[in-house]
From TrEMBL:
Cofactor: Zn(2+)
Species annotation: Helicobacter cinaedi
Gene3D superfamilies: 1.10.8.60, P-loop containing nucleotide triphosphate hydrolases, Peptidase M41
Protein name stated in the entry: Cell division protease
PROSITE patterns, per database record: AAA
SUPFAM superfamilies: FtsH protease domain-like, P-loop containing nucleoside triphosphate hydrolases
InterPro entries: AAA+_ATPase, AAA_lid_3, ATPase_AAA_core, ATPase_AAA_CS, P-loop_NTPase, Peptidase_M41, Peptidase_M41-like
One Gene Ontology term from the biological process aspect of the record: protein catabolic process
């Protein structure tokens, strides 16, 4: 590089010398005088070296060079008794003039500079790429211990069980793990071996990561967090190397917790679709958890929502031999979670009522619901969270915000009849719901294990009510019944194929059709008799665009 820099400096210096020489050669270093002054000076007998060109007359007097425009002097010049040299103007000066010479020089320098830059840039790029390649190739050969120190640093968890609500059953399962981490010597002296691995299984958002942090926080031990996907590398052997480094660091800080989130990314069952890198990583993980080497003092906690795809060797005794299923929170747990997240926020909410509204919500969804409700209250300049804010954001948190539809008046009338029939039939059949609008409804999920045939039949009737009502009022069906009809068919099929609720134990398509026909006949009879009430509900729905269960009840009782 030093030789290249010297060469560049030398070339630039040479160009500058050449440019300076051209300027000195082409530029006239003489004094310009007027024609009258030139005429006076030319009368001096000491004048010499007179040169005449097409523009100027040059002469020397007392070792000084002068020039003057030739106009008006040429006739007097020939009258002098002095030798005169006739000379053509410089080519560059004639074509370009002084400004043109400067422009040519600048362009020449620019072209030369660009050529030099391109000449020396490519070798530099090649050198950089070569250095980068060498760094990448050297990385896998670094010391595992030194690299582990840089990559895997223990975390001190500040989370406690009091910060995680709705996990009472899970907490009981983990208390002895915490006690072991606090007093490992006591268990070792008694010869008690606790599970080396705890697998947390459950849907997204139920708090698996928070539970692992709480265990580390309660035990007061170092906490190593890694995602399963971080072990999957493109370089052969790198995944296994990372696993080995992680456990080396965890053992050095024992007792400690290693938490592997989304372990299914690295622990999938080995099969015909061969992946040597993935299998090597999984084998290293299996060895670290229950291999020849001692891993005493390190508890592995992993989380997944796909236990069915994990390798059998990972689930056998001695590895993840304790599995804890973290379910969606029930009513009491939802109340606890809501109380936790509403702590410190102004609100006028009945937490029990809100918890009943939020069937199917995970802990993360409840946290988002409280936050979105607080933002909604802030947007409307309210000082506290109210039920109105919860209802305004509940559907958005669960299924996302839907785009508002642009409907004509005729379409609104059709939808009012359709949705009004569903609202009226849901109230009559005691199918619980929050509200029904022109473009959607919010039916409550059943928070129980056992559902009767009558309850399923009621759901089918509600799903078919809108289509039956439009046939009753408009003598035709509309395409908006698509999803409801599909839902009714799905429930009827489950009743026949899975629940044994058909007339025959081995039900077929004819049994599904019988259930649907029966439900349609009964609902058609009900809506025909309740047509005036249906039209009243539709008018209210068209006016307000959304009706709650209490409002449907008020309309029904007013018509009695």
């Amino acid at each position: 590089m030093a030789k290249s820099k010297s060469l560049i400096i030398g070339l630039i210096g040479l160009v500058l010398v050449i440019a300076l020489g051209l300027v000195l050669v082409l530029k006239d270093n003489v004094e310009l005088v007027s024609a009258k002054e030139a005429e006076r000076l030319l009368t001096n007998q000491s004048v010499s070296d007179i040169i005449y060109d097409t523009q100027y007359i040059y002469f020397t007097l007392e070792n000084k060079r002068y020039k003057a425009y030739e106009q008006g002097l040429d006739s007097k010049l020939w009258a002098l008794d002095k030798p005169v040299t006739i000379k053509n103007q410089h080519f560059f000066s004639e074509i370009l003039g002084e400004v043109g010479i400067v422009i040519v020089l600048v362009l020449g320098l620019a072209v030369l500079f660009q050529a030099l830059r391109l000449l020396f840039k490519k070798p530099k790029m090649r050198e950089n790429k070569r250095a980068e390649f060498l760094r990448e190739s050297e990385t896998p050969m670094e010391s595992p211990v030194s690299l582990g120190v840089q990559t895997y640093m223990p975390l001190d968890s500040g989370v406690r069980f009091k910060d995680v609500a709705g996990i009472s059953e899970v907490k009981e399962e983990l208390l002895e793990i915490i006690d072991y981490l606090k007093n490992p010597r006591f268990y070792q002296d008694l010869g008690i071996a606790l599970p080396k691995g705890v697998l947390l299984v459950g849907p997204p958002g139920v708090g698996k990561t928070m539970i692992a942090k709480a265990v580390a926080g309660e035990a007061g031990v170092p906490f190593f967090y890694q995602s399963g996907s971080s072990f999957v590398q493109i370089y052969a052997g790198m995944g296994a190397k990372r696993v080995r480094e992680l456990f080396l660091k965890a053992k050095a800080n024992a007792p400690s917790i290693v938490f592997i989130d989304e372990i299914d990314a690295v622990g999938k069952a080995r099969g015909n679709a061969r992946s040597d890198e993935r299998e090597a990583t999984l084998n290293q993980l299996l060895t670290e958890m229950d291999g020849f080497e001692d891993s005493s003092g390190v508890i592995v906690i992993a989380a997944t929502n796909k236990i069915e795809v994990l390798d059998e060797a990972l689930l056998r005794s001695g590895r993840f031999d304790r599995r804890i299923y973290v379910e969606l929170p029930n009513l009491q747990e939802r109340e606890s979670i809501l109380e936790l997240y509403l702590r410190g926020k102004k609100h006028s909410l009945d937490i029990h009522h809100i918890a009943r509204l939020c069937v199917g919500f995970s802990g993360a969804a409840l946290a988002a619901l409280v936050n979105e409700s607080a933002l909604n209250a802030l947007r409307h300049k309210r000082q506290e969270i109210s039920l109105e804010d919860i209802l305004a954001t509940k559907d958005k948190v669960l299924v996302g915000k839907k785009k508002a539809l642009s409907l004509s008046e005729k379409e609104k009338e059709i939808l009012a009849i359709y949705q009004g029939a569903k609202a009226l039939s849901a109230y009559w059949l005691e199918v619980d719901f929050d509200k029904i609008g022109l473009v959607g409804e919010s039916f409550k999920q059943v928070d129980k294990e056992l559902i009767s045939k009558q309850e399923l039949m009621s759901k089918i009737k509600v799903a078919l009510a809108g289509n039956i009502a439009t046939k009753l009022i408009y003598q035709q069906s509309f395409s908006n019944a698509k999803d409801d009809v599909a839902r009714a068919k799905e429930i009827a099929t489950q009743m026949c194929a899975e629940y044994g609720m058909a007339e025959r134990l081995l039900g077929d398509v004819s049994d599904v059709a019988y259930i649907l026909d029966t439900a349609q006949k009964e609902m058609s009879e009900f809506l025909t008799n309740a047509k005036p009430l249906l039209e009243k509900v539709a008018r209210e729905l068209l006016s307000k665009e959304r009706l709650s269960k209490e409002e449907i009840k008020a309309i029904y009782e007013a018509s009695l």
